[in-house]
Amino acid sequence: MTFLSRLFLSLFLAGPGLGWAASSEKGFLEGKLVVTAPARPPEEAPAGSSSYGSDSMYQASPSPLPEEIVVYLVKVKGNWPPPKAHAKLDQKFTKFTRRVVPVLVGTTVDFKNNDPVYHNVFSNSDLNEFDLGRRKKGETVSKRMNKVEIPVPVYCEIHRKMKSNLLVLQNPFFTVVKPNGTFKLQGIPPGTYTLAAWHDHWEPVRAKVTVTKGKTTKVDLTLDKVQ
Fold it and tell me: What's the per-residue H, E or C state across 86-150?
């Protein structure tokens, strides 16, 4: 096999973000995320029609947002360029459409107003503070998340109960898991890391893990306390 052929084959085998090494040079993490702590209290129905519209609008609202927990590696050495595609966190039925959105640092997040009223998007975070102003239905504004920070709380200054969280992460080895669901992270450079699980209702947890070349490391995490 010629040098160019070997080079082409190595590029073909390398997955996204895995650099020049073939996938056999990387490791895998998988496990289950167990939740034993009490669940979040049921959401209250929106009250009145002063800030939104008629009560009939709320009757068409979807069920409460599903709980989502972010499982991620705290720090991985390497150069991790952000994706060109934007992350999205919309506003609909006077809610943010997700409770938590994990993004790689440097990612741009789009915020679209899908409601027939004005919304605002702002954060009073320490490292990624912003205020994108008020927008009417159909308008989208964007913000690039430039600093690693967990979490970046996001609010609407018009509707005080609206809240979501951005997790701006240092590396792309993260995923979103439902309570008592399974997770898998792949393409990880071999080494010892801190694996974390974050949620805004349950107390976050961390565990030391060692990733071995070409093998799968199994580790379970348990959320057993409420914040």
Answer: CEECCEECCEECCCEEEEECCCEEEEEECCCCCEEEEECCCCCCEEEEEECCCCEEEEECCCCEE
Determine which of 57-61, 160-164, 196-200 has the lowest per-residue pLDDT on average.
57-61
Q: How far apart are CA 214 and CA 223, in angstroms?
A: 29
Q: Helices (DSSP H) in the chain: which residue ranges? A: 3-13, 55-59
Give yes or no for a contact between 151 and 198, defined as CB atoms under 8 angstroms apart: yes
Sorted by where each starts, the structural domains of the chain and their CATH numbers stand as 12-38+65-80+170-227 (2.60.40.1120), 81-169 (2.60.40.420)
What's the whole-model pTM score?
0.83
Residue carrying the six token digits 């030391």: 208
Nearest to 202 by CA among 51, 111, 100: 100
Q: How many helices (H) and strands (E) does the chain have?
A: 2, 18
